[in-house]
Amino acid sequence: KIPCLIDCDTGMDDAIALICALLSQDRLDLKAITTVAGCVEVDKTSRNTLNIVDSLGSQIPVIRGAEAPLQRELYVAISHGTSGLGDVVVPEAKRALQEMDAVDMIYRCAVECEGKLQLLVTGPLTNVAKALTRYPAITSLIEKITIMGGALRGGNMTQASEFNIWVDPEAADIVFRSGISLTMVGLDVTLKTELPQYVYEQVRAMDNPFASLAADVFSYMMRRNSLTGVSLYGSVELDPAHMHDVLAMAVVVRPDLIKTEPHYIEVELAGSCTRGMTVADFNDVMNKQPNVDAAVDVDLDAFWAWMLELLEHGPKR
Ligand code: BDR
Ligand code: CA
């Protein structure tokens, strides 16, 4: 099993990623879940995360992490509604968040796993950057970080940048320079994962609590396509039902679902209209070793089949 810590900003697609992670425990040894501000404020991402895992019967510790980016003011997304889960109602957890510093938890898990820990990060990279800064030795204790974030080309927050990296570019910069093996599951592939109607219908017809919650989340994501909200640049349509974070989660247990290319990538910090851009040195003009395996293609049929099988039958026995 892969020892894994999830760092997330739950969030609609984070919620589906969590459900799929809980159902993947034949392949994943989930050590803890830390939360971060991003889709919504950290109190809400923490509550959403705890309520989801608790309502699905899991005792995995959930720890509240950073409430703001390292240097920038927090900017929350509009596509997840004010609660972070749209109009989806999850029962209040019967337990509390684990009282501990999230950064210490990341370090403790890394030490306990003796170099084998993998991180799955589906929000801004604030907690991970703090862990790297407070505990520099952690770089040799983490086997791999799989990130939903960035893009080789394009953006969704701005023309140049993806939301998670844009929110806390200084944190992303620390992580991208860390030397830890990184898989970037960015918009180049995640924008291909808009939920097909047939997948929604099959999940809706399933009869188990994991699939029922997933169907409720999908339903809001599909309906929000026609809603508008006020973003950085004024009124816009909300995101379609892209499974950004779910694909990143899938890749941890099923790396064969994507094709990657090694690239040297830096995060733009200073640009006035390129803040948070993940700039890939395509033509090797900087003469640097690649620091990121960037996803460039996804086997969508296999991805939807993976998700449907998991939601219907759970972990393979
Ligand atoms: C990312 O931003 C968030 O809104 C989603 O949960 C995902 O992690 C996509 O850019
Ligand atoms: Ca997210």
UniProtKB/TrEMBL annotation:
Gene Ontology molecular-function annotations: purine nucleosidase activity; uridine nucleosidase activity
InterPro entries: I/U_nuclsd_hydro_CS, Inosine/uridine_hydrolase_dom, IUNH, Ribo_hydro-like
Domain Inosine/uridine-preferring nucleoside hydrolase residue range list: 5-305
One annotated GO biological process: purine nucleoside catabolic process
GO cellular component, one term: cytosol
Tagged with keyword Metal-binding: no
Alphabetically ordered keywords of this record: Glycosidase, Hydrolase
Presence of the UniProt keyword Hydrolase in the record: yes
Database matches in PANTHER family: INOSINE-URIDINE PREFERRING NUCLEOSIDE HYDROLASE, URIDINE NUCLEOSIDASE
Protein name in UniProt: Inosine/uridine-preferring nucleoside hydrolase domain-containing protein
